[in-house]
């Protein structure tokens, strides 16, 4: 054990010395050289994150598509409890909502351990290993035959998939400046919408495979095999940090480290800092970002789990219910990319965009809650508008990356916000599952209340951080050409570093 500790300490000492040496020898570089590096990173790392997050979203959402191929009936997840006056069946979907909910319990259990592993071991190994294992779990879903089996399967799947989003939030801070992070975070986060856009028709095609297997089983077998194959690509291609990667030449490495120092967000360290860990839970920003992600997770989780069932309850056929989720995914992806672009071009608009996205989705919940059931087009438009709120959650994730400094604090805050994500995605399916179909009124009312909470939380957070920036401006203001007082190897948190300014 002592030898292992000494080896870890030696590794960290060598990395810090390497950073110090690079900082001493960094030559000035031109804007063109920096642009070339950013372009290289965008074409190298961003596609790896995007495809991985798309697979993560696709794999966890296959169960929703499988419901259109008797998945619920085969596993005993839905029961009929009565009939409307027109003969429409009233269904109890509590078991199905439990099978969805337990995925997020697994995600909740796995989040902090996965972040611990990602800080102590090469990030690419942690992510690729988890991806490989969850691909195997997805394939094993085809072997489930009852309620107990699918509950265990989804629990393990959630635990393994928890490796991706929190670590990607931290990974973005290693490579891009704070002004650039919202768009890059939006690029990988929008792939939840990409998955929703492309998956329905693919799943429908896989469901038409006729053979000895039940029609929903090929979906899980094929997608699980693709995921395990992709894990191999991640193992060899995903970099860990500018300090350790072999994918940069020496000049590019120096530019990357200089950009990292410009962030004033601390260094890259494999040492756990207890003080930073405890500071995380004394920081208002931890709770505000977590609350926004939790509250947006309620309608997001509900629509992700019950989307096809709710649309089917509006009166659409099984195929139409699958097909109509495609534009919902498209609006999700486009809204995330749009707000990412707006916040990149217009500084100080992230919280404003969160509020606007929430207000648009509030209108959608009111339509689905109060709209006439005979107007299928209007009800579908309401679902369409609800999807916009996913962009608010994406911006909250980017704020964690941009407004938190110190490696341990950043990792802990990222994990904490995705704990909120899990809780929201647990609550969403629960309130929809407890609300009789096809109306699901309690689900839409709950989503309305949560989105109102997003507006209030974002407004308070904006006012608080704006005042904090003003206080720091009075205490400390760097003059023209003045060098930063702190270097990245000090690994200061945002509360410790008086030069740090919060992104609004």
Topology:
Blueprint: H1 2-25, H2 31-66, H3 71-75, E1 79-83, E2 89-92, H4 94-120, H5 123-140, H6 147-161, H7 164-175, H8 178-189, H9 191-207, H10 217-237, H11 250-262, H12 274-280, H13 284-313, H14 318-323, H15 325-345, H16 350-370, H17 376-386, H18 390-403, H19 407-433, H20 441-475
Antiparallel strand pairs: 1-2
How would you describe the overall organization of this protein?
With 504 residues, this protein is mostly helical. The chain has one domain (30-243, 273-475, 486-490): Up-down Bundle (Growth Hormone, Chain: A). Helix content is 74%, strand content 2%. It has helices at residues 2-25, 31-66, 71-75, 94-120, 123-140, 147-161, 164-175, 178-189, 191-207, 217-237, 250-262, 274-280, 284-313, 318-323, 325-345, 350-370, 376-386, 390-403, 407-433, 441-475; strands at 79-83, 89-92. The protein has a two-stranded antiparallel sheet. Helix 2 runs antiparallel to helix 7 (164-175) and helix 4 runs antiparallel to helix 5. The longest helix has 36 residues, at 31-66. Residues 7-11, 18-27 and 479-483 have low confidence and may be disordered. GO terms for molecular function: transmembrane transporter activity.
């Amino acid at each position: 054990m002592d030898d292992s500790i000494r080896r870890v300490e030696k590794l960290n000492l060598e990395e810090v010395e390497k950073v110090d040496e690079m900082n001493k020898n960094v030559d000035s570089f031109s804007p063109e050289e920096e642009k070339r590096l950013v372009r290289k990173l965008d074409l190298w790392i961003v596609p790896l994150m995007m495809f991985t997050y798309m697979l993560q979203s696709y794999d966890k959402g296959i169960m929703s598509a499988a419901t259109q191929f008797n998945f619920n009936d085969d596993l005993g997840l839905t029961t009929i409890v009565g009939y409307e006056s027109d003969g429409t069946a009233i269904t109890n979907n509590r078991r199905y909502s439990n099978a969805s909910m337990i995925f997020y319990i697994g995600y909740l259990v796995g989040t902090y351990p996965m972040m611990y592993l990602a800080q102590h071991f090469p990030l690419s190994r942690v992510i690729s290993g988890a991806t490989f294992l969850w691909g195997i779990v997805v394939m094993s879903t085809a072997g489930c035959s009852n309620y107990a089996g699918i509950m265990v399967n989804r629990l393990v799947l959630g635990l393994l998939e928890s490796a991706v989003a929190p670590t990607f939030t931290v990974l973005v801070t290693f490579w891009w400046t704070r002004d650039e992070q919202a768009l890059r975070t939006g690029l990988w986060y929008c792939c939840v919408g990409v998955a929703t856009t492309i998956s329905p028709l693919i799943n429908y095609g896989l469901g038409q495979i006729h053979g000895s297997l039940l029609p929903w089983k090929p979906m899980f077998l094929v997608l699980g095999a693709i995921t395990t194959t992709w894990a191999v690509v991640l193992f060899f291609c995903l970099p860990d940090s500018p300090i350790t990667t072999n994918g940069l030449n020496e000049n590019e490495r120096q530019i990357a480290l200089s950009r990292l120092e410009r962030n004033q967000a601390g260094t890259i360290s494999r040492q756990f800092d207890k003080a930073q860990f405890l500071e995380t839970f004394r920081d208002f920003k931890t709770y505000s970002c977590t609350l926004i992600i939790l509250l947006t997770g309620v309608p997001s989780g509900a629509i992700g789990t019950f989307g096809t069932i709710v649309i089917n309850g509006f009166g659409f056929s099984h195929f139409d219910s699958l097909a109509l989720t495609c534009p919902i995914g498209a609006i999700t992806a486009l809204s995330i990319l749009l707000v990412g672009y707006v916040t990149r071009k217009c500084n100080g608009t992230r919280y404003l965009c969160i509020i606007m996205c929430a207000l648009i989705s509030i209108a959608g919940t009111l339509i689905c809650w109060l709209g006439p059931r005979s107007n299928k087009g209007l009800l579908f438009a309401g679902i369409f508008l609800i999807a916009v709120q996913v962009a608010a959650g994406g911006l909250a994730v980017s704020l964690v990356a941009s407004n938190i400094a110190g490696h341990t604090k950043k990792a802990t805050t990222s994990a904490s916000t995705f704990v909120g994500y899990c809780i929201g995605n647990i609550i969403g399916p629960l309130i929809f599952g407890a609300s009789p179909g096809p109306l699901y009124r309690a689900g839409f009312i709950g989503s309305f209340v949560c989105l109102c909470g997003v507006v209030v939380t974002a407004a308070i957070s904006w006012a608080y951080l704006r005042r904090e920036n003003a206080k720091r401006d009075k205490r400390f203001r760097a003059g023209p050409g003045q060098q930063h007082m702190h270097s990245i190897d000090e690994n200061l948190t945002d509360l410790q570093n008086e030069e740090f300014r919060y992104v609004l």
